[in-house]
From TrEMBL:
Residues 3-101 form the Aminotransferase class I/classII large domain. This is Aminotransferase class I/classII large domain-containing protein. InterPro entries: Aminotransferase_I/II_large (IPR004839), PyrdxlP-dep_Trfase (IPR015424), PyrdxlP-dep_Trfase_small (IPR015422). Coiled coil: none annotated. Pfam families: Aminotran_1_2. It comes from the Bacteria.
Length: 137
């Protein structure tokens, strides 16, 4: 059982009913929806079948989760594995990308690397786990 203090319960009850807090949540929801839509559409334009309608992360299908994680890490792009987020029936391999706004200078690089990782197969040079290999150009 999880215990939550009465102070936190009272604060949450206040925020749920507070019009200002509700407006702030609505504004954040809209900002994240726009970011998610831009990321989703850009991946789809590059041939990645991304399915995401809401939430704070974009779920990107990949050929192999570990290969995709290593490929992205070799470029300094950090994403989260998708497999720990499911219990029960296994789901196809995927990675999770936050919908936070990366710096403008990084958006194109991150986007193209994510699309590459989505198409990366087990025979890619990063699949062996040998991170000492030279980064591709």
């Amino acid at each position: 059982m999880v215990w939550t203090s009465r102070i936190l319960q009272d604060a949450l009850a206040h925020l749920i009913e507070d019009p200002g807090a509700r407006r702030a949540v609505d504004a954040a929801r809209e900002r994240y929806a726009v970011r998610r839509g831009l990321l989703r559409d850009a991946r789809r334009d590059e041939g990645v079948d991304v399915r995401c309608e809401d939430g704070l992360v974009l779920w990107v299908p990949v050929a192999q989760e570990q290969s995709a994680l290593l490929h992205l890490a070799s470029y300094g792009v950090t994403v989260a594995p998708g497999s720990p987020c499911h219990s029960g029936t296994p789901v196809p391999a995927h990675v999770r990308i936050t919908t936070c706004a990366p710096p403008r200078s990084a958006r194109a690089v991150v986007g193209s690397r994510v699309s590459e990782a989505a198409h990366t197969s087990s025979d890619c040079p990063w699949a062996s786990g040998n991170m000492s290999r030279r980064r591709p150009s």
